[in-house]
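Subject: Predicted fold for Dipeptide epimerase, 337 residues

User T.R. writes:
Posting the sequence so we have a shared reference for the thread.
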Amino acid sequence: MKLSFEPYTLELRHVFTLSSSSRTTTPVVLVMIESEGYIGYGEASLPPYLKETQQSVTAFLSALNLNGFSLNHPLEDVLGYIENVAPENTAAKAAVDIALHDLYGKAREYAWWQYWGLDRFSVPDTSFTIGIDTEEGIRCKTLDAKDFNLLKVKLGRHTDKMIISAIRSVTDKPICVDVNQGWTDKYEALDMLHWCKEQGVIFAEQPMPKEYIDDMAWLTAHSPIPTIADESFQRISDLKKVKGVFSGINIKLMKCTGMNEAYKVIHEARDAGMKVMLGCMTETSCAISAAAQLSPWVDWADLDGNLLITNDCFYGATLQNGKIISTRMPGIGIKYK
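User M.O. replies:
I've generated the structure tokens; pasting them so everyone works from the same file.
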């Protein structure tokens, strides 16, 4: 197998503001793995809070040697080698994992949703993400989301009620909120969750800082809507830590090293009685299409990352009636533009 890679910068359609930061671009690294005439594509998306950079990803990828592997090797063997090269580097590992899944699927002429026996149309609505903004900005972004059935809004500042009210002034679509650890008082957080439920909010991601474990468990126990772990959940080893603290988890390929571990997390979370959300970073259609292969298994999807950028370099899963639907193409179902 021959590995190659290149840095790339995603240009966002709008300034993207969270409770703690704003940005207009997202750096990524695109990965290609060639073998026996097939090419698999992967991607590492690197928002600043992930603590990986294009430099750290390229350094990790430069340390890999896939020359000793071929398509005759079990995929798990290749992924096991990658996991053990160095700790952490989860987005870098996800890029290789995605490229390998694409490569193996193409070589064997199946999409992964087919291999797993899933219906590519049997998926939840994907949410459209609205960053923190002015009242008028929120209304405009909400109106731009006319093709979506579920809205996801970033909260965590003093403008939270204004943001929800601005959305409600132009639509009655269901909302989910992502607080990004922005609430620090559990009683005030509970009051907000009750108010949010009255406004048609169906669940809340990471209401409190990940260090506030006891307060978060109390909040979940009293919350009128499900709470979903995001910053508190990274990899499969975190499942035991968040069970009983949150109602469910948000799986992101960039955090859990890719499709292989995401598959395992979904099934272990189900066994633990937890809700499952499948999320994303700002990504091209490469990583989004990889995640879409898994979406028939989850309760909620937030796979709009490719729709938030202006320079997507792949064609892949598409928005249809508010859902991100995988193509019939083999592998992860993409083409390089």
